[in-house]
């Protein structure tokens, strides 16, 4: 979907960063698919009315979320703990009805969060458009339908299952171009005392860390408290709490309720003030961000070419969607990176989108460790560093690009 106007306010967008032609972030492919590989012009624009940073053009949802969707949430042990905690927080908030609680999760993936509710005997419904991961959720006893959430689907759910006590989403809301329709659906789906709790990569972290790799086809928006507040106010709802999360290299959890249903916590005003200080509500901040992104690219190319010139081997660690933006924006191919190691079976044996670097199983990395590993899964740095002590002890080094390009180890 192409737009030159903000998807939330309808006002004209100003281009903030232009990344040129990009493939799908999760579009891992086989050599016979190289000719005619899909590419689209990727640029982000900003709207000073809604304060939403958003993709100007986004491939159709059917192109991105389908039965071959390569992302399974449960591949990370840490994420399993994270969603267990998230679920326990919701159960302990006092918002679930005592008699017959009902929890809906949008984009429940393989059921990583909802299985906690299923195990506690709580009535639930997962909505997951990617059929392959939805099937995994169902096989874990998580009641899941394979649909795209919208206002109409919300009305259908209310007619069949009644209104919900809690609406949850993690790393999903930022994927949805029709966010106004979704916000309207949420307002209809929730009981008067219901809450919507969702988390997504946080714009403040992206700007502060120059983590421009959070920008790819699936992330049509990067939210802030300002933009989330604007979006939900239009539906008669308000932001009542915000909680910073470490996941995905810096995320924010937003709690939304019908206006007046609950007091607004101090955390909301504190974050709004902080965002004003960083300038997340102003276009000028994103013009500067664009320069930071260019500088990060120049430094990364210089570092990798320097290491390669010394005859060293470099591999990628984690074939993340984020890495697709870095590799294609910086023009990094097999001349610099030999292979990318990844634990996800569906990615292994394929090639990275656009730059066609081979994806190898983790065993390959263990058997043939490189001199340098570029940490594309930098959002899992803690978990990975703990696991890979032997790599460092044997002389291996890490290359990271956030918050700045450097070598560790
Ligand atoms: P993810 O963090 O979801 O990033 P993105 O949203 O950008 O795709 O993906 C992490 C990827 O890294 C996933 O393909 C699994 C892989 N991975 C490893 O190969 N080894 C690991 O130890 C971890 C934690 C992840």
Percentage beta strand: 15-25%
Number of strands: 17
Q: Report the span from N to C terminus.
A: 43 Å
The helix-and-strand class reads alpha/beta
Biggest sheet details: 7 strands, mixed
Strand order of the largest sheet: 6-5-4-7-8-11-10
Low-confidence residue ranges: none
In angstroms, what is the radius of gyration?
21 Å
**Which small-molecule ligands are present, each listed once?**
thymidine-5'-diphosphate
Task: Please estimate the helix content.
Answer: 25-40%
Mean pLDDT: 94
Shape: globular
The number of distinct helices, counting runs of at least 4 residues, comes to 14
Quickly describe the structure.
The protein is α/β, with parallel strands linked by helices and 409 residues long.
Detailed description of the structure:
This protein is α/β, with parallel strands linked by helices and 409 residues long. Helix 5 (151-161) runs parallel beside helix 6 (179-189). It has helices spanning 61-64, 77-92, 114-119, 131-139, 151-161, 179-189, 203-209, 225-233, 266-278, 283-309, 321-330, 362-367, 381-387, 389-393; strands at residues 14-22, 40-46, 53-55, 102-106, 123-127, 144-145, 164-170, 190-201, 221-222, 237-245, 251-258, 314-317, 340-341, 359-360, 372-375, 397-400, 406-408. Helices cover 34% and strands 22% of the residues. The longest helix is centred in the C-terminal third of the chain and has 27 residues, at 283-309. The mean pLDDT is 94. Strands 6-5-4-7-8-11-10 form a 7-stranded mixed sheet. Strands 14-13-12-15-16-17 form a 6-stranded mixed sheet. Strands 1-2-3-9 form a 4-stranded antiparallel sheet. It has 14 helices and 17 strands. The structure holds thymidine-5'-diphosphate. Thymidine-5'-diphosphate (TYD) is lined by residues 71, 75-76, 318-322, 341-344, 347, 377, 379-380, 383-384.
């Amino acid at each position: 979907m192409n737009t030159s106007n903000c998807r939330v306010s309808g006002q004209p967008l100003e281009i903030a960063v232009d990344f040129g032609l990009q493939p799908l972030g999760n579009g891992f492919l086989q050599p016979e698919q190289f000719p005619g590989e899909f590419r689209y012009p990727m640029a982000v624009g900003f709207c000073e009315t809604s304060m939403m940073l958003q993709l100007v053009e986004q491939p159709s949802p059917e192109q991105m979320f389908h039965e071959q969707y390569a992302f399974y949430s449960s591949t990370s042990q840490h994420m399993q703990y994270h969603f267990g905690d998230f679920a326990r927080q919701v159960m302990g908030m006092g918002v679930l009805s005592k008699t017959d609680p009902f929890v809906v999760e949008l984009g429940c993936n393989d059921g990583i969060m909802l299985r906690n509710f299923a195990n506690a005997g709580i009535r639930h419904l997962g909505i997951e458009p990617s059929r392959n991961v939805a099937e995994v959720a169902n096989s874990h006893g998580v009641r899941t339908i394979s649909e795209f959430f919208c206002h109409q689907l919300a009305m259908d759910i209310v007619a069949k299952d009644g209104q919900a006590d809690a609406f949850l989403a993690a790393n999903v809301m930022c994927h949805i171009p029709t966010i106004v329709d979704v916000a309207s659906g949420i307002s209809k789906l929730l009981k008067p005392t219901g809450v919507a709790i969702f988390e997504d990569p946080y714009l403040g972290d992206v700007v502060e860390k120059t983590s421009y790799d959070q920008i790819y086809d699936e992330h049509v928006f990067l939210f802030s408290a300002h933009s989330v507040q604007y979006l939900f106010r239009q539906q008669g709802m308000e932001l009542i709490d915000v909680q910073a999360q470490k996941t995905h290299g810096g995320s924010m959890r937003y709690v939304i309720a019908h206006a007046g249903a609950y007091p607004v916590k101090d955390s909301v005003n504190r974050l709004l003030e902080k965002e004003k200080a960083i300038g997340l509500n102003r276009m000028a901040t994103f013009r500067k961000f664009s320069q930071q992104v260019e500088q990060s690219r120049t430094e990364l190319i210089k570092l990798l070419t320097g290491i390669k010139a010394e005859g060293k081997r470099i591999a990628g660690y984690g074939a993340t969607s984020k890495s697709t933006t870095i590799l294609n924006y910086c023009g990094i191919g097999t001349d610099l990176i030999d292979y990318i190691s990844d634990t996800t079976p569906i990615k292994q044996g394929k090639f990275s989108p656009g730059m066609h670097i081979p994806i190898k199983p983790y065993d390959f990395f263990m058997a043939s460790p490189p001199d340098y590993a570029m940490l594309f899964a930098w959002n899992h740095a803690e978990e990975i560093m703990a696991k890979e002590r032997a790599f460092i002890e044997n002389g291996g080094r890490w290359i990271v690009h956030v918050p700045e390009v450097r070598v560790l180890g």
